[in-house]
């Protein structure tokens, strides 16, 4: 029996939540308000967690979303959250691109957009990039040369980025790439966040979502 990947588990959860929300609305024969939709999905997630309906890979996500819905109500926008997950994960699922080629295409686009892009420097200690506020991407030269083989990504690559992260997520997705959520603490470049891309887009946790 094949074990489920995180991508499969989070997509299954999001699709099931939206399907059950639609079924419930059709049964009630009434248009739900955003507050009612969030209330339904919060209760649905509580039941799903209690019944262990989905893989334990997504248990932390469910717990976080339940907490968020209880504190924010309709502001949690759970339906929109699930729709964003479905859109991004299905987009990359259907992408025919080799991810090594996809990364190079993304770099070419960023260069055209006048980002500062560096892929020829070894990153093994804290560094500072004087970019004068310009958007920038730095990749360790060893990772860039050794983690791509025959146009495929064979090992994760760290992207050190200083930019609007929604723009980063949007451009990455347009090239068939999911990027991890940013982490400032692990970044070796001052004023940059670390994002990661993984072989076959198999992120171990929820990717950076488009708003």
Quickly list its features:
211 residues, alpha+beta, 2 domains, four-stranded mixed beta sheet, 7 helices
What do these coordinates show?
- The protein has 211 residues and is of the alpha+beta class.
- It folds into 2 domains: 6-93, no CATH class; 99-201.
- 47% of the residues lie in helices and 12% in strands.
- It contains 7 helices and 6 strands.
- It has helices at residues 6-28, 34-50, 59-72, 78-93, 99-112, 141-146, 165-174, and strands at 116-121, 136-140, 148-149, 152-153, 157-162, 193-197.
- The strands form 2 sheets. Strands 1-2-5-6 form a 4-stranded mixed beta sheet. A two-stranded antiparallel ribbon has the order 3-4.
- Strand 3 (148-149) and strand 4 (152-153) form a beta hairpin.
- The mean pLDDT is 94.
Topology summary:
Layout: H1 6-28, H2 34-50, H3 59-72, H4 78-93, H5 99-112, E1 116-121, E2 136-140, H6 141-146, E3 148-149, E4 152-153, E5 157-162, H7 165-174, E6 193-197
Parallel strand pairs: 1-2
Antiparallel strand pairs: 2-5, 3-4, 5-6
Pfam families: DUF2913 (PF11140)
Organism: Shewanella oneidensis (strain ATCC 700550 / JCM 31522 / CIP 106686 / LMG 19005 / NCIMB 14063 / MR-1)
Protein name: DUF2913 domain-containing protein
Give a quick rundown of the structure.
It is built from seven helices and six strands; from the N terminus they run H-H-H-H-H-E-E-H-E-E-E-H-E. The protein has helices at about 5-30, 35-50, 60-70, 80-95, 100-110, 140-145, 165-175; strands at about 115-120, 135-140, 150, 150-155, 155-160, 195.
């Amino acid at each position: 029996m094949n074990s489920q990947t995180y991508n499969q588990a989070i997509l299954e959860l999001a699709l099931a939540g939206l399907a059950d929300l639609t079924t419930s609305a059709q049964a009630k024969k009434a248009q739900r308000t955003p507050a009612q939709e969030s209330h339904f999905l919060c209760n649905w997630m509580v039941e799903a967690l209690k019944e262990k309906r989905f893989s334990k890979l997504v248990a932390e996500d469910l717990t976080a979303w339940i907490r968020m819905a209880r504190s924010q109500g309709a502001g949690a926008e759970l339906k929109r959250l699930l729709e964003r997950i479905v859109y991004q994960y299905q987009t990359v699922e259907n992408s025919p691109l080799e991810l090594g080629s996809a990364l190079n295409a993304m770099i070419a686009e960023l260069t055209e957009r006048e980002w500062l892009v560096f892929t020829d420097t070894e990153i093994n200690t804290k560094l500072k990039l004087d970019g004068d506020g310009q958007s920038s991407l730095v990749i360790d030269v060893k990772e860039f040369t050794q983690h791509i083989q025959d146009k495929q990504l064979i090992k994760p690559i760290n992207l050190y980025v200083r930019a609007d992260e929604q723009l980063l997520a949007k451009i990455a997705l347009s090239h068939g790439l999911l990027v991890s959520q940013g982490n400032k603490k692990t970044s070796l470049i001052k004023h940059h966040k670390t994002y990661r891309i993984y072989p076959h887009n198999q992120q171990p946790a929820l990717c950076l979502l488009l708003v």
